[in-house]
Every structure is written in C-alpha cells, then in structure tokens.
Amino acid sequence: MRNFNALLAFTATIAVLALYNCKVNGQTSQNINVFFINEIDNDPASKAVEVVETYLKKNAQYGLTLRIERIEANKTDAKDLLETICTRYAASIENKQPPHIVLDTTKSGVPSETVKSFTQALGLPTISASYGQEGDLRQWRDIDANKQKYLLQIMPPADLIPEVVRSIVRKMNITNAAILYDETFIMDHKYKSLLQNIQTRHVIARIAQGDRERTEEIEKLRNLDINNFFILGSLRTIGQVLEAVKSAYFQRNFAWHVITQDEGEIASKRDNATLMYLKPVVYAQRRERLGQLRTTYNLNETPQIMTVFYFDLALRAFLTVRDMIQANAWPKNMIYMGCDDYQGENTPIRNLDLKEYFIKVSEPTSYGQFELVSEQGKPFNGYSYVKFEMDIDMVEIRGGNSVNSKPIGRWTSGLDTPLMIKDETAINNLTADTVYRVYTVLQAPFIMRDPKAPKGYKGYCIDLINEIAAIVHFDYTIQEVEDGKFGNMDENGHWNGVVKKLIDKQADIGLGSMSVMAEREIVIDYTVPYYDLVGITIMMQRPSTPSSLFKFLTVLETNVWLCILAAYFFTSFLMWIFDRWSPYSYQNNREKYKDDDEKREFNLKECLWFCMTSLTPQGGGEAPKNLSGRLVAATWWLFGFIIIASYTANLAAFLTVSRLDTPVESLDDLAKQYKILYAPLNGSSAMTYFERMANIEQMFYEIWKDLSLNDSLTPLERSKLAVWDYPVSDKYTKMWQAMQEAQLPANLEEAIARVRNSTSATGFAFLGDATDIRYLVMTNCDLQVVGEEFSRKPYAIAVQQGSHLKDQFNNAILTLLNKRQLEKLKEKWWKNDEIQAKCDKPEDQSDGISIENIGGVFIVIFVGIGMACITLLFEYWWYKYRKNPRIIDVTEAAPSGKRGKIPEGIILGRTEKRGNIKSNIVLRSRFNQYPSKTPKPKF
C-alpha cells in the first residue's frame, strides 16, 4: 500500500511537471502557480498583479504563464482568514496545482501575522511586501537559516518614507515633534524605533477625522509644548490638516513638514504658511519604462510609487521561480503538507535558495532600484528595500495657492540616510525657532526691569538664562506673573503664582529666586540648583551714630565747663593778689632774688598764663616765690590733675557707648523681645516657613497633651510625663502670632519703608531671603543684616512636570558650573554692581576714634594759630603807627678839638641837625638807669 501511494505521488509530480512545459508561440512557457494574498483595501497591489499578468501575456519572451489564486484578507478576523487560506490551499493540492510561491502584500497586523504563520509552518516559498524592519515580523523573527532562504520580505516605499523624519530631526536638531499620519501610512511598528536613541520628545498619532477633531488634536499637541509638526499622508489629507490649524501656529516658532507618497502639488485654503514639502521622484533613466506601463498597461493606480513597487516586486518574484525551474534549482519532488497535517514541528525541509535567485534577477525596475542584502551573516528581511529619491522643497502658500516652490535638497531612501541639502540658508529658515515662555517675579538683583535690555529685563537670572540658551539653543519670551508670587498652595490644594502657570501649561520655565520646596516638586520639576543654599535672615535699620567735631566738649556738661572756667579765673586772680601783697614775692623782694636765674613777676597776665599752662603736660613754668602763692599753685595743680583724669576717662567711655551693637543679634533675640516688631512678606517662602513651624509646634503640643491626659496610662507611666515646664518649644508659635499682629507687608517696597520709618520706640525688622537682604544692604547705607541665616534652601529653575527641559537645563547648568560662569555672575551682581552704594564703614568697638568726633581739637589749633597771627599783625600795627615815640636821655660825646652846641635831646633812632653842626649822639634809655635810692617796701 505504501509503495502504491509513493508511486501515485511520483506520477502526480511528473504530471504537474509536464504541465509546466507547454508551447507558447513556439517557445517553452513555464506555468507558475501563485498564491496572491492581499488586504481588502490594498488596491495598488491588486492593480499591480493584474498588470503583471497582462504584461507577461503580451510579452511572450518571458516564457511565463501565471495561474493566480487571489485571496483577500480581512483586517480583524485571523481565524476566518486562516480557514480561507487553508481551504484554498487544500483545494490546490487536491487539484494538483499547489503554489510555487506565495506573494504576500498584506501590510501589517492580523493579516500579515496570519500569512506569515501559515507560510512558515507549511514551508511555502514566500515573497512578502509587509511593513516592518528586523524583528517586526514576529512569525518570521526566529526562523532558521534554511527558512531564511525562501521566506523573503522586501520593505515597501511607504514603510521607508517615514524614515526621512529621523533624518530631518537629526539635521535640524529638533527637540520635540508631533508625527501625524493617515491611512496611506502604517506607523504601528515605528512608535519606538523611528526616533530611537535620539533625544527628541515626540508623539506619533493618527490624523483625526473631521475638521473640528483635527483642530482639537492640534491644540492638544500644542499643549504638550510641541512646535515641530510632521504630516505624513495624501495631498488631500495634508490640505485638510493645514486648514484646521490656527494661523498663530505658522509663526517663526513653529515648523511644518509635509511628507507624501503622491507627486502633485499642495492644495490648501491656508492663507499664509511656509513649510517643507517632501515627495518621491522617479529616476530619470526609468521614466520611459514607467510611462509605457502607465499608457500601454494602464498602471495608474495611486499612489504611483506603491503601485509600481508591487508591479516590480511581483514580476521579479515570478521571474525568480522561472529562473530556478530552468536552472533545475527548483526541487522536483516538492512536498506540500495540508494545514490539518501540521503538528507544530513537522514543517517540511526545503532544499530551496529562493533568495539567491531573487537577487540575481536582472529585470530592470520601473521606479526605483532594489537594494537587496547579499552579504553573509546580515539579515535579508528588514534590510532589503527599494531605493528611490524624494525631493525636498520649500513651499510658500499664499491665499490658498502655492505661490513659490524652491528646491532645497533631496533624500535617498534608506534606514539611516542623511539629507542632501544644497541650500542651507533655506532649510534654516524652515527651522522652528524654539521659543519658551518664561514667567518670573521681580526681585533684585535676580530680575529687574530695564527698558534698554533686549528682553526688557536684566539681572542675575537673565544672564543665567542667556547662558543656558546659548548652550541649548532656544529663544524665550519673558513675562511677570500677575500676582507677583512664586507659588503657594491654599487650603483647597490650589496653587497661585509661577507654579500655577506651569501646572496650567501657560509657562515653560519659572525663572527667578525660586526656592526648592517639597510641596512644589509634587506638581512641577526643578533643575539642579544654580545658586548655593540660601536661608532667611533679618534686616533692620542701621543705627545712626551721632558725630560732632566738638564731641569731646560734650563729655562734660555746660555747667561743669563754666565752673572750671570760673575756677580758672578765680585762681589766677587769687595768685596775682597773693604775689602782689606778699613781702616774699619777687616783685616785692627783687634784691633777694637778683642772683636767681628765673626772675618772674606774677602780674595778672602771668597768673592767667601760669594757670592755663599748668593744665598741660608742658607745665606752668617757674612757680611763685612766696609760700602762699605756691599753695595756690599746688591746689590748682591737684584740681587740674583730677579734672583731666576725669575728662579722659569719661571721653573714652562716652565714645565707646555710642558705638555699641544693636541689641538684636539673632532670631532668638528677636523672639525674646517685644519692643521691635517683625514680619516676612505675605505669601513668601519665609512666611510659609514660620507658619508651618508654628503648626508643627501646635501638632506636637496636641500629641503631648494627649499623652499627658491619657486615662489609660498607669500611675507609673503618668509620673514619667509629669514635668513643671512645658516640654515642647513654642518659639515659632509666639513668633507667628507676633508676625500676624505686626501685619505682614504685601511687597518688598512696603517692607523697606516700614524698616526705614522705624524708630527706637517703634522698631521693625524684616525677615526675608538672605540674597535679597544682602543686595538691599549693599545698595542702601541705612540698612543692615542682623544674625545668621536659617532654613537654608537652594534656588533652581522650575519647569513643567515631565518636561524635557529639565535634563537639557541640568546639563547646561553643570557646564556653566564647571566653567565657573556662575561664580562670575555672582561677582558681577553682588560685588561689582554699578549701583552699589558707597557707604561709610560703620564704626566698630575695635576701631579708633573717628575724625568726625575728635576733629574739633584740630579746629582749636587752627583757631589758636589764627588768633596768634592776628595778634602779631596787631602788635606790628600798634608799634609802628599808634604808639607815641619814646623820649630817651642822651649824652653827647663831643669830638676832640671841636666846639659846638650840644642838642638837648633827640628821638630814639633818629639824628637831628641843628644849624650846620652834626653831632654824634650817645643814647641812653631811661628805664635802664637804676634809681639812686632803694625803693621803700609797701609793708
């Protein structure tokens, strides 16, 4: 029985082979059985196979006769499709016409996977035009080397065209993209692979149906901060999408790229748009053949590139089978197994190298050249395709028509082929300028208004964002947030300020002295800190130290000075009286003291001089000779010593007290006193800090109260909680209460005004960010920083949650940090600021006495010198012009041998002539003559 069946099979095989060898026009014609499995809507493939059949009939030189079994596959029901295929296949075997080859033009999804499973299981030679790269054909993913020779896949042009998006993204450094496609493209398998390993945030989506739906779709994509759009579809779909887009989305910060399989021009009612247009182009050497197919064989199904691809692929597949049969490379005892006979691992082994002969076919193509992998070890499937080119044009649409189309380059199909650009300027004009929306809060020196600046603002953060923009390559618009807040959450969980703008997608970047806070990080993202840890500190009015050139005179009260002056005159007068009436004084006892070196007569003038000089280190000079005068002098010396010592001690203490530090030196000092009011800005991070610390203390109090009043505790446990003092600090609770009573300032200007208007009786201290306070102190001489920083937090740039800007900005900030650019910015805005106030150095206890407080002594010197000069002039004037000539006695020394009249007298310093006689005069002063008699004493 087995021998009979084998003989029957052999006879059937011989009969089939006999049918192949029939005569057509005197030539040998090969009959080829084809299973053509196509999707329902794939009209280009159906039309192409139909034309191939007609083409072979009209061109007998090919020696081919086709017997095609057509199967249309639905897209959803795999079971029904497999039953249909198996039924048709079983019938072909029964009719002794099994397929030589399966031509599979299913695209993807259920039909493609079903066909791949069928052909792989039964070992049927297959040429597939399904979409997908290596690994996308799941049923052919792990086939062995033998099956790789007859299960072949060629990527269709519609599967290669989306690869141009990758080339454009790389060429133009696009960071975000929306890729929209219609039914003419299949992108399911490209969601992950298209822009793999490229740092581009992208969305791939099917174009919505209906104008309203398309408009909403574009709006949703724009809310994702996407401004680069790729439209892959027919010209009709492209026109509909462009008409659904708002005019504002065609400005300079948007870029539009339209990619199609069609070869016509864009038609849209768009009024004003400039976009990049890519369409396939036929190689010049193939235009004649393509024109013949279109005119003679009516190969006009659109899109043309896909129809011609299916034609070339089908023709090449059929010629491959013919060549193999003619070369005796086709097995003569091909075994065909039915679907019901397949047990999972009993696939027939084929000694068939379909790939080798498929590569060798020399038939010219009609559109593009086949690029088939022939290298050993490199997969054929997923890397073999048709090579074609696409024109890249810059198209301007005005008034609904394409008024200007300028070619700027070409792209050759491939899996990773770069763009060939011949006009770099034009393609740069098609690049979307990346413009981010920045919201900020004014706070010097981070953000300050400046009408002369390019963006209208200047400051540390403006310089920082400009440095980042130079690295990341973007532009930005900056705007102040309406409420002037960085962002706080209310009791209902709603945010305000910059945080709200980021949450609502109205802002891309939150810029300024924005502290990193845990609750903010729940709804937004922060970059790495760009500024060191910054805490809260205290700002108060700088105490003004009164200064006076004659401050040394204020050490003693006025009545003391008057008493000293009275004592001076009284002592001087008393010394003159004692010297005048004492018989032992010099003026009353000249003969006794005539041999002494010091002869001082204490008249009133000398007494005044003696008392004055006695108060100086130089001393008063020769003391009186009489004992009574010396007792007065000694008393005056003792008085002077005590006065000078008291004055010196009080002057040092007086100047020291005036330079004492402010009584508040820390937050604890501020909390312990009640004289000085204090508060942070309303809605600031400092306010949030004190409010939360107070709430935490309240929570701790409630916990302690529950513990201490817990009735379930044993007496021993209760005794462990019995303390006289309250164990939980209420420092911040009291401070928060004091702040609320003091009323929180609404803005920084109000806080500064309250600090400046404060007095010793009604003081006010402002609590705020240390950077802001340091800048205010630097630019205002009447303000000062008090105490150390506390609650330190870093400053960072805020972005939307999940934004790609976070990673880009992180890299940029770290780059700037490594280059020490951030340190240079700090130097610029905190040390070398042009508006930095030139303040006098505040006096310290370790400093000396300033010239403002001791300069009066120099004035005293200058006044004394001035008075001496005036006195000198007066003396000279008095002597020369106002004083009468002094008459002196003269004795004539008559010359010997001469006679003449002796003049009675002459004026001092003059020579008189009387008559013709000139006499030599000997002058003698009157007071140089001692009296002839000794004067009588007064007593």
Task: Provide the fold topology.
Blueprint: H1 2-20, E1 22-24, E2 27-39, H2 43-58, E3 64-73, H3 78-94, E4 101-104, H4 109-122, E5 126-128, E6 151-153, H5 157-160, H6 163-172, E7 176-181, E8 201-206, H7 211-223, E9 228-232, H8 235-244, E10 255-259, E11 272-281, H9 287-296, H10 304-326, H11 354-360, E12 369-371, E13 385-387, E14 389-398, E15 401-412, E16 420-421, H12 424-429, E17 435-440, E18 448-449, E19 457-458, H13 460-472, E20 475-480, H14 497-503, E21 509-511, H15 518-521, E22 524-526, E23 531-541, H16 558-581, H17 604-614, H18 627-657, H19 667-672, E24 676-680, H20 685-708, H21 715-719, H22 731-742, H23 748-756, E25 763-769, H24 770-779, E26 783-795, E27 798-800, H25 805-818, H26 821-831, H27 851-854, H28 856-882, E28 889-892, E29 913-914, E30 917-918, E31 921-924
Parallel strand pairs: 2-3, 2-4, 4-5, 5-6, 7-8, 7-9, 9-10, 10-11, 17-20, 17-21, 24-25
Antiparallel strand pairs: 1-2, 11-14, 12-13, 14-15, 15-16, 18-19, 21-27, 22-27, 23-25, 23-26, 28-31, 29-30
Helix pairs in contact: 2-10, 3-4, 7-8, 10-11, 13-25, 16-17, 16-18, 20-22
Organism: Glossina fuscipes
GO molecular function: ligand-gated monoatomic ion channel activity; signaling receptor activity
Transmembrane segments: 559-578, 634-657, 854-878
